[in-house]
Amino acid sequence: MSTNDTGAPTRWAELLQYIALTIAIAGLQLVWSVETGFGSPYLLSLGLKKSLVSLVWLAGPLSGLIMQPLVGIFSDKSTSRFGRRRPYIVGAAACSVLSLTVIGWTREIAGGHETLTIWLAVIAFYFLDFAINCLQAGLRALIVDVLPASRQDAGTAWASRMIGIGNVTGYLMGFLDLVHILPFLGSTHMQVLTTLASLVLSLTVAITCYCTHETPLLRAPSNSEDNLQAFKALFTSLRSLPAVIKRIFRIQLLAWIGWFPFLFYSTTYIADLYMAAHDAGSDEAMERGTRAGSLAMFAHAVVSLCSSLVLPLITYSTVTGPPRQSQEPSAAGSASAIGCAMDVLFAVRRRLTVSLPTMWTISLGVFSLAMMLTLVVSSVSIASALLAACGLSWAVAMWIPYSMIGETIRSVSSLPLEQHPDLQMNTAPVRGDYVQVATGDIPLEVMDGTSPEPGSEPTTAPEATELSAGTILGVHNVFIVLPQFITAFASSLIFAAFEHIQGTSSESEGGQHAQQIALAQAT
Asked: Is the pTM value of this prediction over 0.90?
């Protein structure tokens, strides 16, 4: 990477590093948008009931609960010469491509057997979810490993932008007639979608792995209790984590009760509203409704991408602090019209700038209001506008929690401890809001916003465990996936009840099903 006279990377070098480091997240999000946006309609087209589709999407929280913590634990201790994260990233990408191929060509592989086709598709979606979570764990931990604390906010902001790009691309591809545009990639819409997603994922992962440098972990002494201690860390770490990370975990636990039905049922929600409004129950009407849902999610993705570009400009982290006067244009250029305009823009920016926690709070308020309004909305256009507005909240959800966690991790240790074999780990218990490091305990007053009382004795927390980036992010994901089990089971029961009440009346079922999805989202 090129540097300036002070030894720091130049602006263009930083930009290229951010893009190379996070571009694989765009490919990952493209795959995720294909699954969440078109998985439900595809399974329904194979003959699977809506109540069973809800159970299929238990694959997401189940894989997140299992894979991300395990990948975090084992990649933290990996001694591969290719680095700690990249072997897992490449392996997960290969499994994702294989699963996408099976999903796209399920009917052909099953030879037209309906029951076998459904089972094969369900199993492929489960494998895809496990691979996606493994890939996400590696990519998120890679950002924390590579960037210092002062650049964590910028790195996660670029990750949010890549998520927006992946979403826009995925939903745009779903809205287009890809079979007519790219007939050589498949004979059905799902075949072309999965083929394109596989190609993009392979290319972006190759760029990230080739351009990102990882320092291999030196082989550490191992014993038979290492793995047991690693698993135990997941259950004992909550008592010894910094207070700021604990609060993030609690917020995520509640926020994802709303995000899970939003992600998996928004397309179906708009499709059902469309069918109810047009008194239609044919397959053609269902296809038009699905396209309307795809258009709504495309608008959501566009708003999310724009938000990821704009919001970081008016948000500051607890590490860098708010914009200072020295960061603004000098008075020398204020005589010109351009200089005056720049002064005004910087003054406005300084007045509008808020902290990361404040921006997160605003975004959660927007999401909550939009979900409550779905209870009274019956218009496709208004419902689509509500989904689009949630793009702001989604951009923040994919950015600020990870940024705050990354800043906290990197603030207590500028380099991974395992890369310093000459340092001996401090085995003293964690005290209060302090985190265990090689040279002692480093306070997190800056991150937590509090300071200990002078002369006060720190309290002792039992059974402290040293945690690395991969493990902390894995525990964080546990708090994301736990509420998804609740919403998945609740959605399955709601859909099963209404299937029994409404029978086979598609016209009545459309509006009622949409309202039940709205109820799940608002809850």
From this structure: no
Give every CB contact of residue 379 below 8 A, 6+ residues apart in sequence.
273, 277
Do the strands 354-355 and 315-316 form a parallel or antiparallel pair, or are they unpaired? parallel
Give every CB contact of residue 504 below 8 A, 6+ residues apart in sequence: none
What Cα–Cα distance (Å) separates residue 425 from each residue in 10, 217, 314?
Answer: 35, 16, 40
Q: How confident is the model over 297-328, as pLDDT tens digits?
A: 889 989 999 999 889 888 887 766 666 654 44
Dihedral-angle region of residue 7 (phi above 0 means left; psi in -120 to 50 means alpha; beta otherwise): left
Task: At 41, list the tokens.
Answer: 């309609």
Distance CA 6, CA 517 (A): 56
- Cα separation of 424 and 369, whole Å? 51
CA distance 400 to 137: 17
**8 A C-beta contact, residue 191 and residue 185:** yes
Other residues' Cβ atoms within 10 Å of the Cβ of residue 341: 11
For strands 434-437 and 440-443, give the pairing.
Answer: antiparallel
Q: Which two tokens stand for residue 153?
A: 């906010």
Provide the token pair at 200: 């993009």
- How many CB atoms are located within 10 Å of the residue 213 CB? 9
The three-state secondary structure class of 465 is coil
Distance CA(77)–CA(217), nearest Å, equals 8
323-329: long-range contacts (C-beta < 8 A, 24 or more apart)?
323/349, 323/350, 323/353
Given a contact cutoff of 8 angstroms between Cβ atoms, the answer to whether 446 and 317 are in contact is no
Express each pLDDT in 98-153 by its tens digit: 999 999 999 899 887 888 999 999 999 999 999 999 999 899 889 988 888 778 88
**Tokens at residue 285, please?**
């009407």
Q: 242 with 433: CB under 8 angstroms?
A: yes
Token representation of residue 6? 């002070």
Closest CA to 321 of 434, 441, 449, 443: 449
| Residues 513/271, Cβ–Cβ less than 8 Å | no
Distance CA 500, CA 445 (A): 56
Tokens coding 287: 């296809």
Q: Which long-range contacts (CB under 8 A, 24 or more apart) does 113-116 make?
A: 114/46, 114/47
- Taking CA 277 as the corner, what is the angle to CA 286 and CA 289, rounded to the nearest 5 degrees? 25
**Residues paired with residue 440 on neighbouring β-strands, in sequence order:** 437
Rounded to 5°, angle at Cα 140 from 484 and 158: 105
Cβ(125)–Cβ(56) below 8 Å: yes
Report whether 268 contacts 41 (CB < 8 A).
yes
